[in-house]
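Table S5 (text form). Sequence records supplied for joint modeling of the two-component complex.
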Amino acid sequence: MFESLSEKLGGVFDSLRGKGTLSENDVMAAAREIRVALLEADVALPVVKDFIETVKQKATGQEIVKGVNPGQQVIKIVHDAIIELLGSEKDPMQFGTPPCAYLMVGLQGSGKTTSSAKIAKHLTNKHNKKVLMASLDVYRPAAQEQLKQLGEQTDITTLPIVEKQKPLDIAKRAMDVGRKEGFDVVILDTAGRLSIDETLMDEISQIKKTINPIETLLVADAMTGQDAVQTATAFDAAVDITGIMLTRIDGDARGGAAMSMKAVTGKPIKLLGTGEKIDALESFHPDRIAGRILGMGDVVSLVEKAVETVDQDEAKKMAAKFKKGKFDFNDLLSQMQQMKKMGGMGAMMKMMPGLGKMAGQLDEAGVDDSHMKKQEAIIFSMTNKEREKPDLLNASRKKRIAAGSGTTVQEINQIVKQLKQMQTMMKRMKKMGAGKMMGMMKDMMGGDMAEMADAMNPEALAEDMAGIDEGGLGPNPFAPGGALAGQSMPGDLENLLGNSSQPHGGKKKNRKKKKR
Amino acid sequence: MVFWRKKKNITEQDKQDHDDRFIHRPGDPALEPSTEYDPEIDASLKHEIEDPVADIDELEETPVPEHTLVEDAQESEDLSDHTEEGGWLSRLTKGLAKSTNKISQGITDVLTKKKLDQDMLDSLEEVLIGADLGPKTAAALVADFAKDRFGKDISEEEVKEALSGSISAMLSPVAQPLEITPPANGGPYVILVCGVNGVGKTTTIGKLAQHLKQKEGRSVMMAAGDTFRAAAIEQLQIWAERTGSPLVTKEVGADAAAVAYEAYEKAKEQGSDVLLIDTAGRLQNKANLMAELEKIVRVLKKQDENLPHATLLVLDATTGQNAYSQLESFKSMVNVTGLVVTKLDGSAKGGVLVGLADQFGVPVHAIGIGEKMEDMQPFNADEYARSLTGLNAA
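The corresponding structure-token record, covering 910 residues in total, follows.
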């Protein structure tokens, strides 16, 4: 687990309080921590070195803003510098006289074929273009078939496959078809190749020269390590790329490759691949990637993920209930299920700013999502009436539920207690804003967890939450009123507190049907 | 009534059990044999890892090493001549030569017999970081290296030897070839292959099948467990044809666990020695996809508690520090028993492997060094370490 940069810098700057400006020595001390943070995020070493020089120059002599921790001030400088490096504005896709070609290049397994289909779909839907896709990958087994199938799934025309045709000939044929049949854009998906494979690099540069595509996109995996520099440089030299598409940004890699590749090629990052679904394509947001690289969490993504996975109708229903201050087992259940859809406890925590360390501690303590499973089993073993009216639960009912869910009466008592606390919280929440939420969370936790709570930064979080409020996310209850902090998180934290040493697991498997 | 009574008994019994447990709670280990978070399993795994190593080391002394590990240019040339024949060492050397040149060049730049000072150590550390060893592992290696040498005169050769020695020491415990032992209770030896998207799982299965058939003379069956990605089944189909292995498939969108289950029955029926199960690529932070993978294992265990006999995680050498997260997640979910590192013929060195070996101790079975059927080789720690530090480069 990565320690966040702010924690490390906190230590470095403790001695600094009371000074007026950031001296060169102060900045030097911070530089080492920044260096490690960037390297852990897979930013390539030469890029890190240059970058740190820039930051040193910017930071030295800056006045320390009153009321701000100097560490945070340096982070702000670093953060802004990363954004500047990544390119601050969105770079739109270009179009030329039809048919214009898009050439997709990259290493094996970087996601070129899937990305081709995503871009084709995007251009069709959002830009109203008539798109033809052609696979020039004659090497990997079933690569052409893959693009063909993606074409069928997305209703994008693909060039008919002709056996034994060479990549360059396929490209020419695709452009011919594009001309004759009036396509606006022809997307050429190429075979994955290593940057040191001279034969294949020659081949791609030949194709580039012959076809003269308007966009040549380097598709690269967000998990790429130090090699990003080598790959980006080699492809840029061979085919003069016009932009970069970063895939698998939905993974938990910190994405330092983005910085490496932008820095060495100067070419913009145009698109992000954010999932396996065909519409999982986004334009590039430098600020979000900057936050990720620094391990500061990605609140925007978290909220977006919430919006995406939370059932809107269900959410509305819940919001109405909350207004009345009502909260029963059905609500708890649907909350747990939503959380599971969002990738479980740990995944969410890692995205929350300041909670990264806490997620690490939970991992160490061996706490995982299985408690949630157990609690689900308990709720599933209740009758509908019991779920709606928790007060109905008497001793014999509890015994029955325990037998049904393979748990103990103690565990059922715990979940009842937890529900009661959440009910109380619901009522209190109505009376207070999002900011105070975090403080309350801290109170609630007490004991060993207090230390963990210290790892969080309530003010920053509250600020972030407030930011989300202003963002106006419509009818989503996760945003207004800071309900995201209020309902999901403490509920489960509570759960973790109570159950972390319970030795028994539920027998009944109540998995939701997987959607793929 | 009977039903009710029974239930009541169970309830009471359960309650008693639970109460017992409740009383003893603080020190109690988890009762449910969880494949996910069981420290005991980890411990036993480590033992298994450590024990066979001794044997393997002895075994490996015998066949070729003196010949293959030569430093002089003449012999290296001889070795590269074997490339066409597909000798594994030459292929590795060739594949790694590109990686090697860069890293050894770096070291040469850094040190040409002078006093070892902090600047030099910093530069040395950077060379290792550049090979994806990660800042922490690199720092540890350099600190280890500097321990007795700080302030002393040192030559380039010594630096390389020392570094190679430390890296090799970290890697040799995990360098274990995949050993197929026919299951005691019959049926095929089942290998589940998993990993994130695009690392080369299907290609690895193709190469593995080829190796098992050609080199070990075993019959292999494949199961197309990637029912999600477009043309994944077709891709494996081609590998099945190339290697002459029967393939079990189901329609696109079918339950991967069902494919695995049926494939096992079929392989048992046909008396195949090994069953290779392909799975869809999945990012380790997608809980639902990971649960799906866990389901494959769970369903297989219904056939036989020992299934799958091996669970391989395929790692892409291009991957940076995220490899930690990948191994950690897959290991906790499906108890990864071994690694295969692919794409080592590229410019990436996969140096993260060193840190992974240190932290997890999961065996590294093989490396992928090309797209051809034969482009898979057992992982040799010493060779890899020496190549990384430039000792074998011609």
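Note: Residues 433-516 of chain A have pLDDT under 50 and may be disordered.
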